[in-house]
UniProtKB/TrEMBL annotation, chain A:
InterPro entries: ATP_syn_F0_a_bact/chloroplast, ATP_synth_F0_asu, ATP_synth_F0_asu_AS, F0_ATP_A_sf. The gene is atpB. Signal peptide: none annotated. GO terms for molecular function: hydrolase activity; proton-transporting ATP synthase activity, rotational mechanism. PANTHER family: ATP SYNTHASE SUBUNIT A, CHLOROPLASTIC. The lineage of its organism: Bacteria, Pseudomonadati, Pseudomonadota, Gammaproteobacteria, Alteromonadales. This is ATP synthase subunit a. It comes from Alishewanella jeotgali KCTC 22429.
Automatic annotation (TrEMBL), chain B:
It is a single-pass membrane protein. CDD domains: ATP-synt_Fo_b. It comes from Alishewanella jeotgali KCTC 22429. This is ATP synthase subunit b. GO terms for molecular function: proton-transporting ATP synthase activity, rotational mechanism; proton-transporting ATPase activity, rotational mechanism. The gene is atpF. The chain crosses the membrane at residues 6-26. Keywords: ATP synthesis, Cell membrane, CF(0), Coiled coil, Hydrogen ion transport, Ion transport, Membrane, Transmembrane, Transmembrane helix, Transport.
């Protein structure tokens, strides 16, 4: 969709920005957040639907599929998380399925959704059209409309991945305090790795960096992988007809990446939470 | 792309989804899986048990069959014994009867013979007497002898 009137840089910028409401920090990326909530809702509703009519007899095909995922997650949780806890498995399942679905949106060709959204925007929401685009052609108006900026792959937005990581961070703190007590947690931060009172400041700096590095690396890893993949998709979309085989190859490769990244995020969450819950 | 409130929104959404999964998704699905696992385990155990029972029943059937065969052969053996016994008895009886008949016949023959011998003796005696009579008569009278002899010839 490299329109002659739009520069390569403009095209890529168009795809990497998002439909945003608000200013400064309190702005909200409507595309990423909206789609992540839609996808999460699809996940919980479909799974809850299966859960409601789950039968211990012969399961239907969808129930089989859901059970496969649930068992897979449950197995990984059981192998990694040794403390008895009924919250950890639902956390792992939610993270895995949600990130998987958000990653999955990347396989939708990069121009489909902007064109459809922009088309509806131009047809039904004229205030969304910038003033400078008033005398553009219809196609250009579509691409200039605010709605066409909407992003549908939420995990290519650093806010989304860091938002997930923030959730995991809060869970790490919660698990640490729940299982070790506030004092135990503070003691662990102060007296590892060097168990001597004079080294408490040093230990604190070291442990706090370790603590903070967990969610940040978690969020940035997912973001980096998916963002890089998205940029490659955009570059492939720029090369004209040759994009068809290239896109196919890259998309097939990404089937692996999206599952793998969701799995890694889930596993690391389980590992971090198990580290938080276990007494050393 | 800046860090903005999307991050907080995502964290809140995550909390809601995790709560929902904890409440409505994980427990029923996991319960169904565990229940089915239990059912399958029970089914497998029942299969094992049934197999064991089958083996037992087969062994028992074999045992019964063997017993039945033994009984049948015993009965046959008995029958055979009785048969040969009956035959032996019949033979013995027939032999005894034959002996008896022979004995009787022999006795009859013996009786006949002794009777005949007696008769013969009597006849020889009377012949000797007759011959002696005739010899005596010739010496006395030829004529008288001749008609005696003729009489004798006629008599013979």
């Amino acid at each position: 969709m490299a329109d002659s009137n739009i520069s390569v840089q403009g095209y890529i910028n168009h795809h990497l920005s998002d439909l945003t409401i608000g200013e400064g920090f309190w702005a909200v990326n409507v595309g990423s957040l909206g789609w992540s909530i839609i996808l999460g809702t699809i996940f919980i509703i479909s799974f809850a639907w299966v859960g409601r009519r789950a039968t211990a007899g012969v399961p239907g095909k969808f129930q089989c599929f859901v059970e496969m995922i649930v068992e897979f997650v449950g197995k990984n949780v059981k192998e990694t998380f040794h403390v008895k806890d009924k919250l950890i498995a639902p956390i792992a399942l939610t993270i895995f399925m949600w990130i998987f679905l958000m990653n999955l949106m990347k396989l939708v060709p990069v121009d489909w959704f902007p064109v459809v959204a922009g088309f509806f925007g131009v047809m039904f929401y004229t205030p969304g059209l910038p003033e400078y685009a008033a005398d553009y052609s219809f196609l250009e108006q579509i691409m200039a409309h605010k709605w066409s900026y909407m992003k549908i792959a939420p995990t290519t937005d650093v806010n989304i991945t860091l938002g997930l990581a923030l959730g995991v961070f809060i869970l790490i703190l919660g698990y640490s305090i729940y299982y070790k007590g506030l004092g135990g947690f503070a003691k662990e931060l102060s007296f590892t790795p060097f168990n001597h009172w004079s080294l408490i400041p040093f230990n604190l700096v070291l442990e706090l960096v370790t603590l903070l590095a967990k969610p940040i690396s978690l969020g940035l890893r997912l973001f980096g992988n998916l963002y890089a993949g998205e940029v490659i998709f955009l570059l492939i979309a720029l090369v004209g007809l040759a994009q068809l085989p290239l896109h196919f190859v890259w998309a097939v490769f990404h089937i692996l990446v999206i599952v793998l990244q969701a799995f890694i995020f889930m596993m690391l969450t389980i590992v971090y939470l198990s580290m938080a819950a276990e007494k050393h | 792309m800046d860090i903005n409130a999307t991050l907080l929104g995502q964290s809140i959404a995550m909390a809601v989804f995790v709560w929902f999964t904890l409440k409505f998704v994980w427990p029923p699905i996991n319960a169904a899986i565990e229940e089915r696992q239990k059912k399958i385990a029970d089914g497998l155990a029942a299969t094992d048990r049934a197999e064991k029972d089958l083996h037992l029943a087969q062994d028992k059937a074999k045992e019964y069959l063997r017993e039945a065969k033994e009984q049948a052969s015993a009965i046959i053996e008995q029958a055979r014994k009785r048969e040969s016994k009956m035959i032996d008895e019949a033979v013995a009886k027939a032999n005894a009867e034959r002996e008896q008949i022979l004995e009787q016949a022999r006795a009859e023959v013996e009786a006949d013979r002794s009777r005949l011998r007696e008769e013969l003796r009597k006849q020889v005696a009377s012949l000797a007497v007759a011959g002696a009579e005739r010899i005596l008569q010739r010496e006395i009278d030829d004529a008288a002898h001749s008609d005696i002899l003729e009489k004798l010839v006629q008599e013979l």
